[in-house]
Write a structure and sequence with these properties.
Chain lengths: 156, 299
């Protein structure tokens, strides 16, 4: 073995070590950031749903136009849920349950269900029929609840 | 079911004086409709349907975990052998308001007869009219699985003497019609206290902590404090917030109800008239605020 090839091997070892280290750092970064990121997405959904409730509950000006906008926000955010939860990590503060990753397909299905329900709410809201809007709000609520019942720790 | 069937002379006289009176079938139909509303006001009698295992509607079998052991919801479909099909009106009234079955069996108070005793006779019988209108299902009841001494029903005699105060709801003259309606629905029909009032060592409700929440709610769930305490209860919720929550399951912040609360909303409360939900809200807002933080005791 000549000096040159030994040097090349050392070089490759260093490169591989750097790649592995970078991978570890990235993985650690994802683990660190994932709970806060997914919480932000769910917070947006909760706030949007809360806003829809306020518009209907207090008969606020803006009415159906606002409901459409908030429902579309929920629909858009629902497409991000599966990606946001891909990294399996739980913290003491997080309310995510292990069932998310144990029953991954059902979890993704529940997120898709929310997307469909919120899309329907947006569509119905454009028509302005209050009774129909109310019915769809309840459907979205059931989509939220079905998912939370299985995949989120109860309120404390 | 034939209740208040007028005798022929009365029918003729009524026809002559005030036009057609409802037929027996019409009366029964109206009673079923009223009974369905009462059923919804109770939250849909969910203990009697084993939803988690795809059980038949109201056919029983649902396991209800208590600190004393497991009790199974009973079959309240009109099947004559395994359900309530063979019961008379008086049998049903006695079961609902006294906690005693047609054969004299004393019921465990996991069946909230201690609350339903506040119901009016009319509402109980309307509820029965609805229950006997649903499809009958032949399904035997499961015996309770309770450890000694709770497995001995005779012990309930002493429990009842100490804890059971029978009697129909009495409206308060110095309160509004809305308040009294809210108090009746909350305390007699919706049986909110069965979850939201903590229990003492014998399993009886601790009325000094009326609606202040329970760490040991049914099926191990936490039941929130629903008194108007600003920090630990729902003092920050308006009448509109409470009404909306009972209609949709959404809290003011946008989060949703889960577990048993979701069930009673989905199967019952959401169908109540807005005026009744507002009456419940007005009643809850009038309660004495009790500071009682409900948190999980699990590590």
């Amino acid at each position: 073995m000549n000096r040159g090839s030994q040097g090349t091997r050392v070089g490759w070892v260093i490169v591989l070590a750097l790649i592995a280290t970078a991978g570890l750092v990235l993985a650690q970064g994802a683990e660190e950031g994932a709970p806060a990121y997914r919480e932000k997405i769910m917070t947006v959904n909760g706030a949007s749903m809360g806003a829809i409730n306020d518009v209907l509950k207090f008969k606020l000006p803006g009415g159906t136009e606002h409901i459409v906008a908030h429902a579309e926000t929920i629909q858009r955010e629902s497409r991000l849920i599966a990606g946001a939860f891909q990294t399996e990590v739980m913290t003491e503060e997080s309310r995510a349950l292990p069932t998310i990753w144990q029953q991954w397909d059902q979890f993704v299905g529940a997120a898709e269900n929310l997307g469909q329900a919120s899309a329907k709410l947006a569509e119905v809201a454009k028509g302005g029929d209050q009774a129909a809007i109310m019915a769809e709000v309840k459907v979205v609520g059931q989509a939220c609840s079905n998912c939370h019942n299985t995949f989120r720790k109860p309120n404390e | 079911m034939a209740r208040s069937v007028p005798w022929l002379g009365g029918v003729v006289l009524s026809l002559a004086v005030s036009g057609p009176i409802p037929s027996v079938a019409q009366e029964e139909s109206a009673a079923v409709e009223r009974g369905k509303y009462i059923f919804q006001a109770t939250g849909g009698c969910g203990c009697h349907t084993d939803y988690a295992n795809g059980g038949a509607f109201l056919a029983g079998g649902r396991a209800i975990e208590t600190p004393f052991g497991t009790i199974y919801g009973t079959n309240i479909t009109p099947d004559p052998e395994t359900g309530i099909g063979g019961w008379s009106d008086e049998d049903f009234l006695r079961a609902m308001t006294e906690g005693i079955g047609p054969d004299g069996t004393m019921y465990y108070p996991v069946f909230p007869y201690t609350t339903f005793t506040r119901m009016t006779r009319e509402d109980v019988l309307d509820l029965r009219a609805y229950l006997v209108s649903v499809p009958p299902v032949k399904q035997e009841n499961k015996p309770p699985e309770l450890g000694f001494p709770f497995s001995v029903r005779a012990g309930l005699t002493a429990w009842r003497l100490l804890n059971f105060d029978a009697g129909t709801f009495e409206p308060l003259a110095d309160q509004s019609t809305e308040w009294n309606r809210g108090a009746y629905i909350t305390n007699a029909l919706a049986h909110c206290g069965e979850c939201h009032t903590p229990r003492g060592a014998t399993g009886a409700l601790n009325e000094e902590m009326h609606y202040a929440g329970s760490k040991e709610g049914p099926e191990g769930e936490l039941a929130p404090n629903i008194t108007p305490d600003e920090k630990t209860g729902i003092g920050s919720w308006s009448v509109a917030d409470i009404t909306w929550f009972l209609q949709t399951g959404f809290e003011p912040g946008g989060d949703d109800a889960q577990g048993l609360m979701r069930e009673v909303i989905d199967h019952g409360y959401q169908y109540l008239e807005a005026s009744d939900l507002q009456a419940i809200a007005a009643y809850l807002k009038s309660l004495t605020a009790i500071h009682n933080e409900i948190e999980s005791t699990e590590p």
